[in-house]
Design goal:
Helix content: 25-40%
Strand order of the largest sheet: 3-4-5
Oligomer: single chain
Largest sheet: 3 strands, antiparallel
Number of helices: 2
């Protein structure tokens, strides 16, 4: 389960079906209309709820191996990029 730390009602239960579909999409599979119903809609709702929240830190990757934290210092109005070692 993915859940917002502060707002417990923002959460997503990741089923095996959703996990498999995301894996196939990563491999280049184009989901059908039926595939985009159900669990995928729950994923979209979860994503939309998270996007509506205010945040100052994000975690990004371009290869699923190297991660970076991007932080906003509101006082200085500067962005900071910090490499993360998750290994």
């Amino acid at each position: 389960m993915f859940q917002h730390k502060a707002k417990k009602d923002i959460r997503l239960n990741v089923s095996l079906d959703l996990r498999e579909m995301l894996y196939y999409i990563q491999q280049g599979f184009n989901p059908s209309i039926n595939d985009l119903k159900g669990k995928f809609i729950e994923l979209q709702v979860f994503k939309n709820l998270l996007e509506a929240e205010t945040y100052t830190d994000i975690l990004v990757t371009n290869d699923d191996k190297n991660y970076y934290k991007i932080s906003l210092d509101k006082g200085a109005m500067k962005l900071y990029v910090t490499p993360l070692n998750l290994a």
